[in-house]
Write a structure and sequence with these properties.
Helices cover 85% and strands 0% of the residues. By secondary structure, it is mainly alpha-helical. Residues 23-34 have low confidence and may be disordered.
Length: 237
Protein backbone atom coordinates (compact mmCIF):
# COMPACT_ATOMS: atom_id res chain seq x y z
CA UNK A 1 0.00 0.00 0.00
CA UNK A 2 1.42 3.40 -1.08
CA UNK A 3 1.56 6.35 1.22
CA UNK A 4 -1.08 8.96 0.57
CA UNK A 5 0.73 12.04 -0.93
CA UNK A 6 -1.82 14.31 0.67
CA UNK A 7 -0.53 13.23 4.06
CA UNK A 8 2.99 14.27 3.09
CA UNK A 9 1.72 17.61 1.89
CA UNK A 10 -0.22 18.13 5.10
CA UNK A 11 2.82 17.18 7.11
CA UNK A 12 5.01 19.61 5.19
CA UNK A 13 2.41 22.35 5.56
CA UNK A 14 2.20 21.69 9.31
CA UNK A 15 5.99 21.82 9.66
CA UNK A 16 6.10 25.03 7.61
CA UNK A 17 3.40 26.64 9.76
CA UNK A 18 5.23 25.61 12.92
CA UNK A 19 8.50 27.11 11.61
CA UNK A 20 6.74 30.35 10.66
CA UNK A 21 5.08 30.54 14.08
CA UNK A 22 8.42 29.90 15.78
CA UNK A 23 10.11 32.67 13.78
CA UNK A 24 7.30 35.12 14.58
CA UNK A 25 7.45 34.24 18.28
CA UNK A 26 11.21 34.80 18.31
CA UNK A 27 10.78 38.19 16.64
CA UNK A 28 8.09 39.16 19.14
CA UNK A 29 10.30 38.09 22.04
CA UNK A 30 13.21 40.09 20.63
CA UNK A 31 10.95 43.11 20.15
CA UNK A 32 9.59 42.81 23.68
CA UNK A 33 13.13 42.48 25.03
CA UNK A 34 14.22 45.64 23.20
CA UNK A 35 11.15 47.55 24.31
CA UNK A 36 11.87 46.72 27.96
CA UNK A 37 15.46 47.94 27.87
CA UNK A 38 16.27 51.05 29.87
CA UNK A 39 19.83 51.97 28.99
CA UNK A 40 19.55 52.20 25.22
CA UNK A 41 21.46 54.94 23.40
CA UNK A 42 18.30 57.02 22.68
CA UNK A 43 17.20 56.73 26.33
CA UNK A 44 20.62 57.82 27.58
CA UNK A 45 20.51 60.81 25.21
CA UNK A 46 17.03 61.71 26.49
CA UNK A 47 18.22 61.44 30.10
CA UNK A 48 21.16 63.68 29.24
CA UNK A 49 18.78 66.23 27.71
CA UNK A 50 16.65 66.26 30.86
CA UNK A 51 19.79 66.60 33.01
CA UNK A 52 20.77 69.70 30.97
CA UNK A 53 17.59 71.56 31.95
CA UNK A 54 18.68 72.83 35.40
CA UNK A 55 22.09 73.77 33.97
CA UNK A 56 20.43 75.87 31.24
CA UNK A 57 18.17 77.58 33.79
CA UNK A 58 21.11 78.30 36.12
CA UNK A 59 23.41 79.70 33.44
CA UNK A 60 20.72 81.86 31.81
CA UNK A 61 18.60 83.09 34.71
CA UNK A 62 21.08 83.30 37.59
CA UNK A 63 24.55 83.68 36.07
CA UNK A 64 23.72 85.77 32.96
CA UNK A 65 25.89 83.47 30.85
CA UNK A 66 23.73 83.91 27.77
CA UNK A 67 26.14 82.50 25.20
CA UNK A 68 26.82 79.37 27.26
CA UNK A 69 23.12 78.83 27.98
CA UNK A 70 22.29 79.17 24.26
CA UNK A 71 25.01 76.67 23.38
CA UNK A 72 23.56 74.23 25.92
CA UNK A 73 20.08 74.85 24.53
CA UNK A 74 21.38 74.10 21.03
CA UNK A 75 22.93 70.85 22.29
CA UNK A 76 19.61 69.96 23.91
CA UNK A 77 17.71 70.61 20.67
CA UNK A 78 20.23 68.58 18.64
CA UNK A 79 20.01 65.66 21.08
CA UNK A 80 16.22 65.74 20.76
CA UNK A 81 16.57 65.22 17.01
CA UNK A 82 19.35 62.63 17.08
CA UNK A 83 17.79 60.32 19.68
CA UNK A 84 14.67 59.85 17.55
CA UNK A 85 16.76 59.14 14.44
CA UNK A 86 18.85 56.53 16.28
CA UNK A 87 15.78 54.89 17.83
CA UNK A 88 14.06 54.47 14.45
CA UNK A 89 17.10 53.62 12.33
CA UNK A 90 18.55 50.99 14.70
CA UNK A 91 15.23 49.72 16.10
CA UNK A 92 16.00 50.94 19.63
CA UNK A 93 12.51 52.14 20.49
CA UNK A 94 11.36 51.35 24.03
CA UNK A 95 8.45 52.07 26.32
CA UNK A 96 10.70 54.21 28.51
CA UNK A 97 11.86 56.16 25.47
CA UNK A 98 8.27 56.91 24.49
CA UNK A 99 7.86 58.46 27.93
CA UNK A 100 11.21 60.24 28.23
CA UNK A 101 11.02 62.10 24.91
CA UNK A 102 7.78 64.06 25.53
CA UNK A 103 8.68 64.55 29.21
CA UNK A 104 11.98 66.10 28.15
CA UNK A 105 10.18 68.38 25.69
CA UNK A 106 7.64 69.61 28.25
CA UNK A 107 10.25 70.10 30.98
CA UNK A 108 12.42 72.10 28.60
CA UNK A 109 9.50 74.32 27.58
CA UNK A 110 8.53 74.91 31.22
CA UNK A 111 12.13 75.64 32.22
CA UNK A 112 12.56 78.22 29.46
CA UNK A 113 9.37 79.97 30.55
CA UNK A 114 10.73 80.09 34.10
CA UNK A 115 13.91 81.68 32.71
CA UNK A 116 11.78 84.41 31.16
CA UNK A 117 10.00 85.01 34.48
CA UNK A 118 13.38 85.80 36.05
CA UNK A 119 14.67 87.95 33.20
CA UNK A 120 11.63 89.85 31.84
CA UNK A 121 9.49 92.52 33.48
CA UNK A 122 6.04 91.09 32.72
CA UNK A 123 6.06 88.42 35.39
CA UNK A 124 2.29 88.27 35.89
CA UNK A 125 1.69 87.66 32.19
CA UNK A 126 4.36 84.97 32.14
CA UNK A 127 2.91 83.30 35.23
CA UNK A 128 -0.49 83.21 33.49
CA UNK A 129 1.21 81.52 30.51
CA UNK A 130 2.92 78.96 32.74
CA UNK A 131 -0.33 78.18 34.58
CA UNK A 132 -2.20 77.77 31.29
CA UNK A 133 0.61 75.54 30.00
CA UNK A 134 0.59 73.33 33.12
CA UNK A 135 -3.23 73.04 33.16
CA UNK A 136 -3.23 72.10 29.46
CA UNK A 137 -0.62 69.39 29.96
CA UNK A 138 -2.47 67.94 32.97
CA UNK A 139 -5.70 67.79 30.98
CA UNK A 140 -3.90 66.17 28.03
CA UNK A 141 -2.35 63.51 30.28
CA UNK A 142 -5.67 62.75 32.00
CA UNK A 143 -7.71 62.64 28.78
CA UNK A 144 -5.05 60.62 26.96
CA UNK A 145 -4.87 58.11 29.82
CA UNK A 146 -8.66 57.71 29.88
CA UNK A 147 -8.67 57.17 26.10
CA UNK A 148 -5.90 54.57 26.41
CA UNK A 149 -7.72 52.68 29.17
CA UNK A 150 -11.03 52.66 27.30
CA UNK A 151 -9.90 52.01 23.74
CA UNK A 152 -6.26 50.82 24.02
CA UNK A 153 -5.27 53.61 21.62
CA UNK A 154 -3.49 56.94 21.89
CA UNK A 155 -4.73 59.97 20.01
CA UNK A 156 -2.38 61.56 17.48
CA UNK A 157 -1.55 65.25 17.67
CA UNK A 158 -4.00 67.56 15.90
CA UNK A 159 -3.16 70.61 13.79
CA UNK A 160 -4.16 73.03 16.55
CA UNK A 161 -1.90 71.22 19.00
CA UNK A 162 1.02 71.42 16.57
CA UNK A 163 0.25 75.10 15.85
CA UNK A 164 0.27 75.82 19.58
CA UNK A 165 3.63 74.08 19.97
CA UNK A 166 5.18 76.08 17.11
CA UNK A 167 3.88 79.43 18.39
CA UNK A 168 4.74 78.73 22.03
CA UNK A 169 8.23 77.40 21.39
CA UNK A 170 8.94 80.04 18.75
CA UNK A 171 7.87 82.86 21.08
CA UNK A 172 9.82 81.55 24.05
CA UNK A 173 12.97 80.88 22.03
CA UNK A 174 12.79 84.33 20.40
CA UNK A 175 12.59 86.01 23.82
CA UNK A 176 15.33 83.77 25.22
CA UNK A 177 17.71 84.52 22.35
CA UNK A 178 16.94 88.18 21.63
CA UNK A 179 15.58 89.34 24.98
CA UNK A 180 19.01 90.26 26.36
CA UNK A 181 20.07 92.23 23.25
CA UNK A 182 16.92 94.11 22.14
CA UNK A 183 16.62 97.39 24.06
CA UNK A 184 13.56 98.52 25.97
CA UNK A 185 10.80 99.51 25.22
CA UNK A 186 10.95 97.51 21.97
CA UNK A 187 11.50 94.19 23.74
CA UNK A 188 8.67 94.98 26.17
CA UNK A 189 6.17 95.48 23.34
CA UNK A 190 7.37 92.35 21.54
CA UNK A 191 7.23 90.33 24.76
CA UNK A 192 3.65 91.36 25.52
CA UNK A 193 2.53 90.44 21.99
CA UNK A 194 4.28 87.06 21.94
CA UNK A 195 3.27 86.04 25.46
CA UNK A 196 -0.35 87.07 24.89
CA UNK A 197 -0.42 85.13 21.62
CA UNK A 198 1.04 82.07 23.36
CA UNK A 199 -1.57 82.25 26.13
CA UNK A 200 -4.32 82.45 23.51
CA UNK A 201 -3.04 79.43 21.54
CA UNK A 202 -2.51 77.33 24.70
CA UNK A 203 -6.05 77.96 25.94
CA UNK A 204 -7.60 77.58 22.47
CA UNK A 205 -5.83 74.28 21.78
CA UNK A 206 -6.91 72.99 25.21
CA UNK A 207 -10.58 73.81 24.51
CA UNK A 208 -10.42 72.20 21.06
CA UNK A 209 -8.77 69.08 22.49
CA UNK A 210 -11.47 68.79 25.18
CA UNK A 211 -14.20 68.89 22.50
CA UNK A 212 -12.21 66.39 20.41
CA UNK A 213 -11.88 63.90 23.28
CA UNK A 214 -15.56 64.34 24.21
CA UNK A 215 -16.46 63.47 20.63
CA UNK A 216 -14.28 60.33 20.74
CA UNK A 217 -15.70 59.21 24.10
CA UNK A 218 -19.25 59.74 22.83
CA UNK A 219 -18.57 57.74 19.65
CA UNK A 220 -16.97 54.95 21.69
CA UNK A 221 -19.96 54.88 24.06
CA UNK A 222 -22.40 54.67 21.14
CA UNK A 223 -20.36 51.90 19.54
CA UNK A 224 -20.43 49.86 22.74
CA UNK A 225 -24.18 50.40 23.07
CA UNK A 226 -24.71 49.10 19.52
CA UNK A 227 -22.54 46.04 20.19
CA UNK A 228 -24.48 45.22 23.35
CA UNK A 229 -27.85 45.69 21.69
CA UNK A 230 -26.84 43.63 18.63
CA UNK A 231 -27.14 40.10 20.10
CA UNK A 232 -30.41 40.99 21.85
CA UNK A 233 -31.84 42.31 18.59
CA UNK A 234 -30.85 39.12 16.74
CA UNK A 235 -32.49 36.94 19.37
CA UNK A 236 -35.75 38.86 19.07
CA UNK A 237 -35.72 38.31 15.30
Amino acid sequence: MKDDPSLDNDGKMTESNEETTSVLEKKELQSDTRSDKIFTIPNIISMFRIALIPVIVYTYAFRNLYVLSLVLLGISAFSDIIDGIIARKFNMTSELGKLLDPVGDKFTQGALMLCLVVRLRFKVLLIVLICAFVIREIFMIVLGTILKLRTSHFSSAKWYGKANTVILEGSVLFLIVFGPVIPSPAIDIIAVILISLSIFTVITSLILYIFYYMKIFKAYKNENALEKSGPAGNENV
